[in-house]
Amino acid sequence: MFSLTEPLEDSIIIRGQKVAVDFSFDTVLLWYQLLEDDSILSNDKIEIAFDNFVEESFSPPLSLEEKVDVIDIISQQIKETPYGKTINAVASIQEDCTSVSEKYFSYTQDAEAIYASFLFDYGIDLDLERGKLHYDKFKALLAGLSEKSYFKRILSIRQASHAEYEGEALTNLLEAQEYYALESEKSVDNLDNQMGDIFSMLKAQAEG
C-alpha cells in the first residue's frame, strides 16, 4: 500500500531471505492479463508470474507449492487499498460516484483510455514508464485522475443510473453504455477473485 513515510514495497521474504520483487506497474498488469487468459493452465500462470516478479534463482529450485505461496503474498500486496477491504466499498455506498471501482474497469479493455488519461492529466507516457513506475504509484495516480480524463468519463458512463435520465438523454446514455460496455470477466474485481480461486485450488492439490 502507498505510504508517504515508508519506502514502497520492493521485496518479500522467501526461504528466510529478503528477495527483490519487480512491482513495476507493467509487471503487475501482466499478472492480471495472465488471469484473463483461459488458454493457460493455472500451474503455468503461477510459473510465468513467478518468473516475471522474481529474478532471483534458488538452489534447490522452488517447488510449485512454494511459488504459489510467493505469488499469493505478492497478490495480497497488490490488492491492498487504504479505503475499505476493496475499492468496491466506495461504490456500494454511493452508486453514482465516479471513484475507481474495480468492478467498472479492466486494465486490458481500458488500456487505451488509461494511457490517454495519464498523458492528459499528468503528462506521463506510460509506455516510457515500463519497468520503472511502481504499481502503488500507478494505482494512486489512476485513482486521482480528473473527471475530465477519458478514463473517468468512461467510468461515469458505466456507473450512470438510468433513473436519472429520460427521453433523448436516456437514449444517448444507453448507446454510450453499450459502446463502452465492460466484459465482466475482465473487470479487475473479477480477476482479484480469480486470484483467490487459483491459490485455493493449487494449495488443495498440493495438500492432497
From TrEMBL:
Q: What is the name of this protein?
A: Uncharacterized protein
Q: Matching Pfam families, A to Z? A: Phage_Gp15
Q: Which InterPro entries does this UniProt record tie to the protein?
A: Phage_A500_Gp15
Organism field: Lactococcus lactis
State the source organism's domain of life.
Answer: Bacteria
What is the phylogenetic placement of the source species in the record? Answer: Bacteria, Bacillati, Bacillota, Bacilli, Lactobacillales
